[in-house]
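Marked as duplicate of an earlier ticket. Keeping the data here for the record.
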Amino acid sequence: MARFFYWIGLISFPFLLAIPFVLGIVEILLWSDVLERRDLDFGFYLFSIPLMFIVGCICSVVIHRTLSKNRID
């Protein structure tokens, strides 16, 4: 049972890192009428979602490798 939650945590970690950036885009789109007067660059948000997903994948691999080397059963 512990392995099940371990794998669920490793798989969901990259998505959890990318969620705040997705919510940021949604929030900006909801408030777009207020932000029409400003020059807002969506490039940062569109670049940050895959970047944070990749960072989350790398972190998950590092966590998995570290825990599998020091396995406590």
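See parent ticket for discussion. The chain has a mean pLDDT of 75.
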